[in-house]
Amino acid sequence: MAVSRSDLETVHQLPLFQGLAPDALRRLVRDAEVLACSKRTVIFEQGQPVTHFFGVLSGWVKLFRLRPDGSEVIIEVFGPGESFAEGAICMADGYPVSAELVEDGRLLAVPVASYIERLREDPELVVRTFASLAVNLKRLVSRIESGSSLNSSQRVGAFLLHFCPPASPGGGPVNVRLPYDKKLIANRLGMKPETFSRALASLRKHGVAVRGGKARIADPAALRRHVSPE
């Protein structure tokens, strides 16, 4: 379906498009469409020709590669307000990963051909595109660094803190909704489900209680000290 006026407001919040004048944004997404996708919809597969990149309007999308034995390696998971696959627009070998919805969601699909034409016309858009790629690169580097320098308990704690709502002025406990299922979180953090379960259990002494798809953090500041003791 075409990009509606309400969708346009959401699209304007994507880091890639923030600050663009309304007319410039409308021209940019003129050839784009909004896809309403159900859980487990495959957006693209590794090696397919690169035709679009995407913004997440709602839901969560996992990017993954398959091992020779058929198991998945999660590269990253993107949620509302984030874009993905823009780094593949000039890859002649096709998408380097596969993408799949992990829950029902809506995506902005931007055709690569028309976007490249806009890049040729607008130097500011080129800068924004590089900035978006830099953010995703920094995110990947941070993941690699935390995977090598933090133990499993600290990695899970850092993940929970990332999704913490803002703390109240007086402090106190906060509730965190796990963004997707625990098996996917474990894969995203580079650990087996049983290791993830042990890490959650070890976080109880740091004030973290998980039940179902929700976590309660008694003292976010204390959890931050556990994650980054220095």
Q: What would you note in describing this structure?
A:
By secondary structure, this protein is an alpha+beta fold. About 40% of the residues lie in helices and about 25% in strands. The protein has 8 helices and 11 strands. The protein has helices spanning about 5-10, 20-30, 110-120, 125-150, 150-160, 180-190, 195-200, 220-225; strands spanning about 35, 40-45, 50-60, 60-65, 70-80, 85, 100, 105-110, 175, 210, 215. The strands form 3 sheets. Strands 1-8-3-6 form a 4-stranded antiparallel β-sheet. The protein is globular, with a radius of gyration of 19 Å. It starts with a helix and ends with a helix.
Label this structure with key terms.
230 residues, alpha+beta, Jelly Rolls, Arc Repressor Mutant, subunit A, 2 domains, four-stranded antiparallel β-sheet, globular
Question: What's the short story on this structure?
Answer:
This protein has 230 residues and is an alpha+beta fold. Helix content is 38%, strand content 23%.
Low-confidence stretches: none
Structural class: alpha+beta
Strand content: 15-25%
Could you give the distance between the termini?
Answer: 50 Å
Number of helices: 8
Return the average pLDDT rounded to an integer.
Answer: 88
Overall outline: globular
CATH architecture of the largest domain: Sandwich
Rg for CA atoms = 19 Å
| SSE series | HHEEEEEEEEHHHEHHEEH
Provide the CATH superfamily of the largest domain: Jelly Rolls
Helix content class: 25-40%
Task: Describe the protein's topology.
Layout: H1 5-11, H2 22-28, E1 33-37, E2 42-44, E3 52-58, E4 61-66, E5 72-78, E6 83-84, E7 98-101, E8 105-111, H3 112-121, H4 123-149, H5 152-162, E9 174-177, H6 182-188, H7 193-202, E10 208-211, E11 214-217, H8 220-227
Antiparallel strand pairs: 1-8, 2-7, 3-6, 3-8, 4-5, 4-7, 9-11, 10-11
Helix pairs in contact: 3-4, 5-7, 5-8
